[in-house]
Every structure is written in structure tokens, then in C-alpha cells.
Amino acid sequence: MKIEFSGAARGVTGSKHLLHINGKKILLDCGLFQGRRKESIEANMKFPFEATEIDAVVLSHAHIDHSGALPILVKNGFTGPIYSTHATRDLCSIMLRDSAYIQERDAEWMKKKLKAPDAEPLYTIADAEKTLSLFRSVDYKQQIKVCHGARVTFHDAGHILGSAIEEWDIWDDETSQKVTFGFTGDLGRKNLPILKDREQLENLDVLITESTYGDRLHEEIKDVEDRFAAKIVETIERGGKIFIPAFAVERTQEILYVIREMQHAGRIPQIPIFVDSPLATGATEIFELHPECFDEKLVKMFDRGENPFDDINGLQFTRSVEDSKALNQFPGPAIIISASGMCEAGRIRHHLANNISDEQNTILIVGFMAENTLGRKLVEHESPVNIFGEPHELKAEVIIFNAFSGHADQNGLLDFAGACGTPTQVFCVHGENTQMLTFRERLKKLKNLSQANVEAPLPGEMFELQQDKSWKKSSWRNPISQQLFPDLEVDPLRETGV
User: Any residues with CB less than 8 A from the CB of 190 and at least 6 apart, and which?
Assistant: First the structure.
């Protein structure tokens, strides 16, 4: 058995981890890289493996940095099954089509405005629809056979609707031993509204864990609601608008839930609220189809006939481009929630281009912003910023609320790893270098991991299972990954000796 790390290795996008099991190749996630446009397009177009050689994909959840490259895989010849939960399949049915639509429109814009005749989308809506035909969805806790000797069970990750922690039971023919292997996907936080809390895996031999917030702690939502409400009220009083870049899935619904709670309690006034994202609108409708993912409080609300996502009390879902453009002329204060969450695509870019230079306005950042994204530049108060190739001065107020993150913080990640048994090997993925360095050091201090080898793989590195259940790093590193990520040739983690 081997594990090859092809994406979200020393980074937080492009999640791809390739399992070599008993002569088969199983891909864990197949996400899009996001960041600098030129580099991201190249990384998305060049798989460090042959798509036709992949036997199956096992998908942890529907976020585009985990699922968004599936149509490229299919376009390149993949025809195998894609396993996911039912809710993940339903969300992908709108998210992959939406991703393809955005890319088609962006390619048209580049051809017209930037005079780039060779601009093409990474994939089309037809490619996305072909991909959706390959999905095979299953229940949580239903064990499925993926290939000879390998079975996987999905457990609730509490991150977004349908998100899964994967528990693998593997018989490795080459070493004649059983391996229990866990993959967190993106691990959710406890006590968030809407979703059930994440579950715990135990008795693992090897763990692949995300580390997005491996170097920091989150505020609790209840502790920041006063500040959140205060910023909304301040903006209203100065006549501005509140723009919230939010992932269409989970974050939008969570923000709506919190705003409705604050309005109900009289902490913020009743003002117009617009969800300006066709994808978020569709995702909100899908939420109602999957009560198996709801926490107890939301279940009771629906049982009472209350729906926090109804378009009442000033909430409006804008669907057409014309309605979206009209928001730029909307008089007076309003809250506008729009995708994408990292400000790299979708309607939020148009709203920012038209409103970022107005000091009356406020931009509320409620999620993680990866390096080199427009969202990260706003977080770092960079000015001017380029939007659609033109510079815009940042004069609007930017406020960051990490309490709304759907990712576990350092304590949450350590709690999960500390209760997973006594694995001989832990791999840290889905985090930036500085986060992984801190998190890797903290993992080694856990009592149950004192004898474990803890690695933060470079893109393209491969590790092989040994007879004693240890893992040996191959001297070979995928040359395509080396080419795509030359800045990671120097390994600060291993040089520190941590």
C-alpha cells in the first residue's frame, strides 16, 4: 500500500491524495487549485497521474477545493465510480454545474475584454453533467467495498452538509496485514449551528488530517455575536452596505441563521438581506432535503413549522444577472451575501469592484482565505487590489470573524488526533507551511502519538507501508508536482528537525 500526495500538500486547495492498494489506484478527493490565476490554471490542467488509471474516487465533501476538478478528471478519461454521501452528491449536482458555468463565462470575458483568443474553460457544463452520472452515493455508517481488500465507511465530519470523515479497513496483499486508516477530509467544529457535531474515529493505524487552522484558535460564535451585531449596526448608521463573501454551501446558511437569530432578539434592525448567488439559493433548497445532517435545535425548528431560510422578513434570493446588477443602485443600507467565499469567482467580485472604494461600506470576512486569493488580499488590507484586471482602492472597512469558520481550530484538531488510537503514522495536509510547522510540533506532544512518525508531505511525495506498519518515504518524487510547485523544493519543516 502506498499513498501519493498530489494536492493540498503544503497548501489548502486542490485536495488530491492517491492510494495505491492491491494493484488499484483510488483517489481521495479531486479539488481545484485556487490562487494566482496563471499558476492555478496550470496546476488544474496538469494531473501528476493518468486519469485513465484511476479506478475510483472517494469524495469527502462538496467544496470546490475538494470536488471541483472531478470534471477535468472525467474529461481526461476517468470512467470509474465516485463515492460520496447522498448530500454531497446533491450539492455537487449544482456546484459542479455552477463551477463550469463560471468558467465558461470567464473564458468568454477574457476573449472579449483581454483579447485572449485561446482562453478556454477548464471544463464545460457538459463535462460536469457527465461527471455527475458517475456518482454512487451511500448513507453515513454504510460500509462499501471500493476495491479488492479495501472498504470505506463515511462518518459525519460536521464541516458542511454531507461532509464525511473516512474510515478505511484495508487488507494489504503485499505486506499481508490489515490497516485501519482514517482521513478527516475537512474536520468540522463542535457546537456550530445547523449541523450535527463531527464524529470520532478510534483505533487507527494511520491518519491523514487536515491542518487549516493548525496554528490558531477560534473565538466561539456566542462570544463574537455582540461584535458582529455592532459592526452591522455601525454600517447601517453611516448609510453603508454590508458585503459578506461566503461559501454558497454551509457558510451562507449559517450566516442567515445567525442574522435571523439576532434580528429576532432585537440586536440588529430589520433591513433588506440579499443572497446574491444562484448556487447559494440552490444549496439552501438542498438543505431542506437532508435532515439527517441537522442538529437537534434545527430539527425542532422545522418540526415547529419554522424555516430559518424562508424568503420572509426582508430576505430575498436574487437569481438573475439583472437583479444582481440592480443591487449596485439599491438605496440605503442592506446586507449582501454572495459567493465565492474566497472572492475568486462569482458575483462577489462584481460587488467588490463596485463598492470596495466606498468608506461607508463594510466587508465582513467569515471564512478562511487561501494565499494569493483576492479574499486574502482583503484580509491583509492590501490596496489597491486588482479585480477583473483593474486596480481598486480599498476604502471599505474590512472586519474578520474567524468564529464562523467551519474548520476545527488547533484544539479541535488535536482533540480528534488525541482520541484516534495509537497510529504509527500521521500525515498533515490541507494547511500552509507555517500552520503545519506549529501543528506538527503539537501533534508530537500528544501522548498517543509520542511514538508516531508525523509528516507534512510535499506535493508529489509518496509513502509506502512497511511490514512493521511504519511508512517509508520514496526517494522518488512526482516530477509534475515538482514542476508545478518549485517554491516548495526547500523543506523548512524537516530542516528544523521538529
Answer: 158, 197, 198, 412
Per residue in 320-329, pLDDT tens?
889 999 998 8
pTM: 0.88
Location of each CATH 3.40.50.10890 domain in the chain: 221-404
Domain span(s) for CATH 3.60.15.10 in the chain: 2-216+407-496
Give the pLDDT score at 265: 87
**Which triple of cell numbers denotes residue 482?**
515538482
CATH architecture, range 2-216+407-496: 4-Layer Sandwich (3.60)
Question: How high is the pLDDT of residue 107?
Answer: 86
Decide: 394 and 383 in contact? Cβ < 8 Å: yes
Which sign, positive or negative, has the C-alpha torsion 334, 335, 341, 346?
negative
Of 375, 347, 396, 404, nearest to 239 by C-alpha is 396
Cell numbers for 453, please give them. Answer: 512518525
Euclidean distance between CA atoms 256 and 273, whole angstroms: 9
Per-residue confidence band for 495, with pLDDT thresholds at 50, 70 and 90: very low
For the four alpha carbons of 415, 166, 5 and 403, in that order, the dihedral sign comes to negative
CATH architecture entry for 221-404: 3-Layer(aba) Sandwich (3.40)
Q: How far apart are CA 101 and CA 94, in angstroms?
A: 10
